Description:
The protein has helices at 5-8, 17-35, 51-54, 61-69, 79-92, 107-110, 154-158, 175-185, 189-197, 203-226, 241-252, 262-278, 294-305, 314-331, 336-339, 345-359, 364-376, 394-413, 423-436, and strands at residues 11-13, 43-50, 94-97, 101-104, 111-114, 124-131, 137-147, 150-153, 282-284. Helix content is 50%, strand content 11%. It contains 19 helices and 9 strands. By secondary structure, it is of the alpha+beta class. The longest helix has 24 residues, at 203-226. 52% of the residues are buried. It is globular, with a radius of gyration of 22 Å. α12 packs across α18 (394-413) and α16 (345-359) runs antiparallel to α17 (364-376). A hairpin with a 2-residue loop joins β7 (137-147) and β8 (150-153). The chain has 2 domains: 14-158, CATH 3.30.1330.90; 175-199 and 201-451, 2-methylcitrate dehydratase PrpD, CATH 1.10.4100. A 5-stranded mixed beta sheet has the order 5-2-6-7-8.
Amino acid sequence: xxxSVFEMFKVGIGPxxxxxxxxMVAAARFLDHLRxxxxxxxxxxxxxxxxxAFTGVGHATDRAVILxxxxxxxxxxxxxxAEAALDEISARGAVxxxxxxxxxxxxxxxxxxxxxxxxxxxxxxxxxxxxDAQGDVIAxxxxxxxxxxxxxxxAEMANPPAPSGPTTPYxxxxxxxxxxxxxxxxxxxxxxxxxxxxxxxxxxALDAGLARIWQVMNDCIDRxxxxxxxxxxxxxxxxRARSIHxxxxxxxxxxxxxxxxxxxxxxxxxxxxNEENAAGGQVVTAPTNGAAGVVPAxxxxxxDHVPGAQTSRVGEFLLTAAAIGGLVKHNASISGxxxxxxxxxxxxxxxxxxxxxxxxxxxxxxxxxxxEIALEHHLGMTCDPVKGLVQVPCIERNxxxxxxxxxxxxxxxxxxxxxxxxxxxxxxxxxxTGADMSEKYKETALGGLAVNIPNC
Length: 456
C-alpha cells in the first residue's frame, strides 16, 4: 500500500474535497475517456446521487461538474475564469472541450439531482454521459468520490487495480507494521515515509512539493485572518477569524492573558482556513477540505508559539501526518459521507497530533500514541452540516480538532509510548462505527444539527 504525501495533501478549492474537488476530477477523467473513443459525441449529461445530490448545492457540486466538463481542474483553478465560463455555458447551453469541440450541455436540463437511494458502492456517486446528435446516450461512466479528492470508477470500486510502481522499502499497511519497521530500522516515521516517497521522485522534487504544500496552507491562514464579511450560502455566517485575531494581538502586550487563551490562537488558525474553504478559496486537503484547518493550524501554532520550532522541519511534520492519514484511509475511511465527521476532523486531528509529536522529539511509539489519543476522542462524531454547507459546525469543529491534536501530542509525550488501545484498533473502531451510523448523519443534511436550526 503506497499513498503519497501529495495524495493526502492536495492543493484544491473549497468548499469540499469529496463534493467539489472529486466531481471536478471525475469530469476531467470522463473527458479523457471520451477523447479515446473511436466515435464522436455531440452532448453531455450528468446526474448526482446520494450525498452528492442531498448536499450538492451547498457544496457547489453542480458548479464543480460544469467547470470540470469545461476543462477546469482543482489544482489550477482560476476563480475569475471560472465565473466567466459558467456564465458563458449557461448562456449558450454548450461547453467547448479541448479535443472534442463544442458539445451541447445545458446545466438546467442536463444536470440532474437524484434524491433517491444512493448508487451501490458509495454514498457519493455521479454518472456522466455522452450523447449523439439525437440525444441518445452513447457512452456512460459512473464515478464515486470517496473522500479527500480521490475518485474511482464503478469498475475500480468493484475490482481495485493492483498496486503499481516501484517497491517501497517500508511498505507498512498498519500502525503495528509501521512501529515494527521503525524499531528494526532505527528510523523515524517521517524518515521511512521519505524513503518511500523517494522511490517515486527525487529529493529536490519532494522537498519542493512539501514546501509548496506548507506555503499554500500558510497563505490560506493569512488570507483567512484578513478576510471579512458574510460567507456565501444563505446561512449568513459571519467570518470571525479576523476579529478574534485582532483581539488576541491587542491582549498579547498587556500580560493579562489567561493560559487557556492559547486555545483561541490554535482555533483561529483553523477557523481562518475553513472560512476560506467555505468561501470557495484555495486550500489543501488535510486529508479533506472539510477538515483542512486542523493540520495547518497545528503547524502554525508550533511555529508561532513553541520555542525552538523551525520551518525547515515542517516537511517532517507533513510526512509523519501523511503516514498516519494513509493508514486511516487504507484501513477505514476519510470520507464524511462514508463514516461521518470522525473520518474527517477525527483523521485530521490524528494526523496533526502525530506530526506535532514527531517535531517535538517523540519516538515512533509516542507518535502512534498521539494519533490514537486524538482519533479515539472523535469516535462517533456525525457529519451533519446545516443546509449542506461546510460552515456550521465545520468551521469551529476544525478549531477544536486542532486543540485536541495539541493536547493529544502533549499527553503522549508525557509517557513512553506504552498505552492500552493501539491505533490500529482505534481505526477499526472508527470503521465499524461509521458502518453502523445512520445514513442521515453522514453528510446528507438530514439529521443532527442540520435539522435543528433556528426558524429565521
